[in-house]
Amino acid sequence: MRILIYGINYSPELTGIGKYTGEMGSWLATQGHDVHVVTSVPYYPEWEVHQKYKGKLWHTEIIDGAKVHRVPLYVPKQVSSVKRIIHEFSFILALLPVWFGFLFKKKADVVFCTAPPFHLGFFPLLYSKLRGVPMISHVQDLQVDAAKELGMIKNKAFLNLMFSLERFLLKNSAYVSTISLGMQQKIAAKGIAPKKQILFPNWVDENNIKPLPKEQSLRAEFGLSNTDKVILYSGNLGEKQGLETIIEAAAHYKDRTDVYFLIVGSGGAKEKLEQMVKESGLTRVKFYPLQPYEKLSALLATADVHLVLQKKSAADLVMPSKLTGILAAGGCAIVTAEPGTSLYEVVNQYAMGILTEPESAVALKESIDIAINSDLDIYKKNARSYAEMLLSKKNILKTFENTLLNVSSI
What we know:
Helices cover about 40% and strands about 15% of the residues. The chain is an alpha/beta fold.
C-alpha cells in the first residue's frame, strides 16, 4: 500500500503520540509499504525544537524506510491555551505547500490522520475527497472535551464551534479509530456509529521493555541504594495529570531518609513542580530528563512503585501511554481513576495496579504507604502477563495492517 500519514508529532520524539505514530510508520515501512509522513520538526515533550532540527524549514528525511516530510512551526517556551492554539495553527498553515504537492503525486491508498490537533484533519479530509481515498481519523486524545473539562477554554461559543468542526471531521471520515473502549463510547456519543469505529490501542514492545532486577536499574546512576523506597513518575509533565499531588504527598515523607520521589520527563508544568519542591524544602524529590529508549527498562526497574496520574476531568478523555511500558516492565503502578472509567475497569479487572482517587494528595499518600509496605509481586506478575497477552506491538500492528488493507480495498 501507499500510506499517507498526517500528525503533528512523530519520531524521534520519545513519549506521547509521536512515539506511537513513529513506531507505526516505521513498522509499516518495514513490511514493504510505501509510507509517507507529513509532520512537524520534533519538539515534544520539551516544548523546544530538537537540536538537530533547529533552523530547518521544509525538508524530507528517511526514518526506518518511511519518507518523513517535515514542516516548521511555532513552539512556545511557556505553554498556555492561547499559545497552544497559535502553535497548532502555525503547523497547519505550514502544511499547505506540502499538502498541495501531494495532490499532484501518485495517489495514496489510504490516509491516516492522528489527533490532536483535531483540526489537522481538514487537509487530509480534503485530499481524501479530491483523490477518492479513504481516510481514517485516529483519536489519541479527545482534545476539545479535555480543553472544556480542564477549563483550558471557557468561551462557550468557541467551544461549540470546535465541537461542531470535530463532529464534521469524524462523520466525514471513512473510519474513526481510537485507543480504548471508553473513548470509543465517547466517540459514539458524538454520533459516530460503532461500525465506523476501529479499536487501535497503544502497544508496547514486550521484547525490548521487560522486567529487570534492581542491580540492572539506574539506581546506582541516580545515587540510590537497593534498599531505598523509590516512587517514580516518568513521562510528560503537563496539566492533565494533576502532578502537584506528588509534591504534596512527598511532603509527608520529608523525614524518611529512605523514601525518594523521582520525576523523569519534561513539559509545561516542570518549572511549577520544581518551585513547589524548593519552597517545601524537599531534598529527596529528584528531577531527571527523559531517558533514551534503550535505557527505558533500566529506568522502570528503578522504581518500587510507579505513578500514573490524571485529573478527574480527564477521565476517559486520555489514556495514559506511560502505562504500557510500566506493565511490560512488570511494574506496580498507583493509578488515579474513578469507578466507571475504562482505565479503572481494566486495572481492577486484571489486578495489575493500585487504584486511588484522582487529585487527592491524602489518597495518594495512603496508596504509597500501602505500596511501600506490601508485597507487590502479584501486581507485577499480572502487569507483565497483561502486556504479553494484550499489548504486544507485533500483534496490534499486524492486526491494524490488515485493517488498512481492508479499508484501502473499499
